[in-house]
Amino acid sequence: MNRDELLQQITALDFYIIDLHLYLNTHPNDGQALELYNASVRKVKELREEYTQRFGMLLANNTESRQPWQWIDDPWPWQRAFNFNLGEDMG
Amino acid sequence: MWLYDKKLEYPVKIKNPDPRMAKLIITQYGGPDGELAASLRYLSQRFSMVTPQAKGTLNDVGTEGAKWTFPLPGLSSPGRMLSPIYGLTEPGELPWDRLLRTSGNPCRRRSPGDH
Questions:
Q1: Could you tell me which chain B residue has the CA closest to the CA of A7?
Q2: Global confidence as pTM
Q3: What ipTM was predicted for this assembly?
Q4: Which of A28, A41, A51, B18 gets the highest tally of CB atoms within 10 A of its CB?
Q5: What is the pLDDT of residues B66-100, one digit of tens each?
Q6: Rounded to whole angstroms, how far apart are CA atoms B9 and A23?
Q7: DSSP assignment of B83-106, as one string?
Q8: Nearest Cα to B66, choosing from B43, B104, B36?
Q9: A74 touches chain B (CB under 8 A)
């Protein structure tokens, strides 16, 4: 996977996880939703690990950095260059 | 208190810069009826909740609301969105002025439509 594909998968899974998280707050006994949640968390952990190794720090905390300190590297999420291309039909 | 994730929570596509839309969105941040005030209310209301479901939901929805601080720089990609706002808005109309103001009676009975 290239950087854009990796970032897109992480973004999609993270959003899915937030939604499941909020749902589970009010439906804590929904075992099927909880299984989906756990599987998604495991998957995104792997993908985040790979992203951090190859393209730099995603989280400010509990993340190792190469020399020199990588956190301040461009691009930042509010810059066009950071984000993956959404294509024409997804606007 | 917060952990910064160096990526967007949801992708944004700016097809065409739209200063009027940007201005509208930015007014939803601050002020007594804005998202930041709503998120602080959720985070206060959680303290008086009884059930685990309500405590968790208000904690997490308040957290989601607080994340609204981040689309602000998202709108401000240099030369794209925010600068047209400043170009079109008189200082007295800037939504920031509303951030320090609160409205209505703080002790009033809450109505169902309130956040």
A1: B7
A2: 0.75
A3: 0.87
A4: A51
A5: 777 555 544 544 433 333 333 333 344 444 444 44
A6: 17
A7: HHHHHHS-GGG-GGGGGG---S-T
A8: B36
A9: no
